[in-house]
Amino acid sequence: MKIVGSRLVYALPKGRKTRDIPLPGSVGVALTRHLEEFPPVPVTLPWEVPGGPATTVNLVVHGRTNVAMDRHTFNRGYWHSALTAAGIQPTRATGMHALRHFYAPLLLDAGESVKALSEYLGHADPGFTLRTYTHLMPTSEDRTRRAVDKVFGSTPDGLATA
User: Fold this and answer.
1) Less crowded by CB within 10 Å, the N or C end of the chain?
2) How far is the first Cα of the chain from the last one, in angstroms, to the nearest whole number?
3) Which domain holds residue 12?
4) Rounded-to-integer distance, Cα 145 and Cα 30, Å
5) Do 7 and 52 fall into the same domain?
6) Which keywords, in A-to-Z order, does the entry hold (predicted)?
7) 8 Å CB contact between 105 and 136
């Protein structure tokens, strides 16, 4: 969904391309449980522009009255409440977009290729992905030390910076 003027419409994601993202079975289990407790609701909105062709989609995330929510309503009504309950101050830095900044370095740190990650995130250029997210990889120095230790057959006796 996106906001056009002040109205919600269905539309393709930014860049007008869809993305397939592999998810582990644990996410599937959690999603199944969520869908059992909160079944998807059919919601009809125009496609692309207000007054566009009416399109009905079963929404997994919807308002309490089974209506579509814009991102601002979701952030204020749900995301900020969840952050507060977790003891995190709601700020721009902890907004929904922060999930991308969690997801990307997590996958890079686990060894996912920059090319694959750039496709998951919808980036046209893997170089952009690398420039944007590598500084968020807190264990990269530790990995470097372990790699060098492995080459020299050393047992690390503590981490140090030369």
Assistant:
1) C
2) 50
3) 1-88
4) 36
5) yes
6) DNA recombination
7) yes
Residue 142, Cβ neighbours under 10 Å: how many? 13
Residues 78 and 130 in one domain: no
Domain boundary among the residues 42, 61, 88 is at 88
Amino acid at 89: Q
Mean local confidence (pLDDT), 108-119: 89
Same structural domain, 83 and 146: no
Mean pLDDT of all residues in 55-64: 90
Number of C-beta neighbours around residue 68 at 10 A: 19
Distance separating alpha carbons of residues 7 and 116, to the nearest angstrom:
34
Q: Is 155 helix (H, G, I), strand (E, B) or coil?
A: coil
pLDDT range class, residue 62, cuts 50, 70, 90: confident
Could you say which of 88, 108, 131 is where a domain stops? Answer: 88
